[in-house]
């Protein structure tokens, strides 16, 4: 013990607060035993695990590595920030490496355009959620490759063409005046499609589990996306999917974000031993949090209670709104101002997941359509056309 510490008062501290024999730990163990038969859902950055309770073995469903078409769509959607990065390298940093990086990106864009076709999306990538939209996706990708090729080729001939103004007018927003889809529309569509596919599969899986959502214990564990992102339920696309899968029946007070909780790696060859080994530690994390929360009502019953609720999201249909701190409400699949603003927000707000700009909107539309993606309007795809053969 340090010379400047009081052994008596330190012992008082550890009696309640610290260590496995503390009174607080006693409460945690008791609370965990009381909910031992309740369903526990744990989400990592790649998988969902359901611990049914009562000693029953867990089941696991992947939602990231098992997502067909994710990398292909991301490759197309990331062309927007990729080209913007080249502009930044040249304009802000005067980095001569912009030219070699532009040449490298242009080579890959041309290779991708050669490979792209409706048949590729229908027969090779073959995502069930995208069935019937393969030609539209191929046309969208073809247009994106074409305008990217033109923009980068022009910059290589005359580097003054690679600037912030032309990035917007000749690339991101090109086509607005002509009335067809743009690169901005494409980014919204690809992010929406990815969220739509993952959500459809997860909703189906949770429906099969027949969970009593009023009793469910939910922990979103570990890192979600970039290090600063997804640490609150309203910035986590995983939380969004869980709420949708429950039909919005999961009480928010039963969903805890635990970025420092232990996680499991995606099980290989059906081996769930590592997943099973984490059940008790994860149940104790949920139970410890819950037990502490419940002390509030016991100690301060006459004061206003905390009640997690949905945030009042900003409405930017008023053009006088110039700053926001939360995702703006989307009024429909043609609300380009709101959706494009969300693209900006996920770049600027470190709390956000880069791919989560419209995931919550995709989930809500899918739930409203009874999990039938054919009945959902994909913004930037179903409601626009992309010219081909450019």
Cα separation of the termini: 75 Å
* Strand fraction: 5-15%
The profile of the biggest β sheet is: 5 strands, mixed
The helix/strand order is HHEEEHHHHHHHEHEHHHH
Across the major sheet, the strand order is 3-2-1-4-5
What is the structural class?
mainly alpha
Rg calculated over all Cα atoms: 25 Å
Name the quaternary structure: single chain
Helix content: 40-55%
Poorly predicted spans: none
H/I helix tally: 14
Main attributes of the structure:
5 strands, mainly alpha, 390 residues, 14 helices, five-stranded mixed beta sheet
What is the compact description of this entry?
With 390 residues, the protein is mostly helical. The protein is 48% helix and 6% strand.
Description of the structure:
The chain has 14 helices and 5 strands. By secondary structure, the chain is mainly alpha-helical. Helix 10 (237-245) packs parallel to helix 14 (359-368). The chain is elongated. The mean pLDDT is 93.
């Amino acid at each position: 013990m340090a010379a400047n510490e009081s052994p008596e008062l330190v012992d008082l501290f550890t009696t309640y607060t610290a260590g496995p024999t503390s009174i607080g730990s006693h409460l945690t163990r008791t609370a965990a035993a009381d909910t031992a038969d309740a369903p526990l859902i744990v989400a990592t950055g790649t998988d969902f695990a359901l611990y049914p309770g009562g000693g029953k073995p867990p089941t696991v469903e992947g939602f990231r590595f098992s997502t067909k078409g994710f990398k292909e769509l991301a490759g197309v959607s990331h062309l927007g920030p990729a080209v913007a990065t080249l502009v930044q390298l040249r304009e802000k940093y005067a980095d001569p490496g912009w030219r070699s990086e532009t040449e490298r990106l242009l080579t890959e864009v041309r290779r991708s355009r050669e490979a792209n076709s409706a048949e590729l999306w229908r027969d090779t990538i073959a995502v069930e959620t995208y069935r019937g939209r393969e030609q539209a996706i191929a046309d969208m990708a073809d247009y994106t490759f074409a305008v990217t090729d033109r923009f980068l080729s022009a910059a290589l001939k005359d580097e003054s063409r690679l600037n912030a103004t032309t990035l917007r007018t000749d690339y991101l927003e090109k086509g607005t005046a002509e009335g067809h889809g743009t690169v901005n529309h494409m980014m919204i569509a690809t992010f929406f499609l990815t969220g739509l596919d993952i959500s459809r599969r997860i909703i189906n899986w949770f429906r099969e589990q027949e969970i009593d959502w009023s009793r469910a214990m939910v922990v979103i564990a570990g890192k979600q996306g970039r290090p600063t992102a997804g640490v609150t339920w309203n910035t986590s696309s995983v939380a969004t999917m869980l709420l949708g899968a429950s039909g919005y029946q999961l009480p928010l007070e039963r969903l805890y974000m635990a970025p420092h909780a232990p996680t499991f790696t995606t099980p290989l060859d059906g081996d769930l031993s590592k997943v099973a080994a984490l059940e008790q530690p994860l149940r104790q994390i949920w139970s410890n949090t819950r037990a502490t929360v419940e002390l509030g009502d016991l100690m301060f019953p006459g004061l206003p209670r905390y009640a997690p609720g949905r945030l009042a999201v900003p409405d930017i249909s008023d053009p006088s709104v110039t700053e926001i701190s939360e995702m703006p409400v989307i009024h429909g699949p043609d609300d380009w101002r709101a959706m494009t603003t969300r693209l900006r927000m996920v770049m600027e707000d470190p709390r956000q997941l880069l791919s989560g700009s419209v995931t919550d909107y995709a989930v809500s539309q899918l739930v409203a359509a009874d999990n039938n993606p054919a009945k959902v309007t994909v913004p930037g795809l179903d409601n626009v056309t992309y010219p081909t053969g450019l």
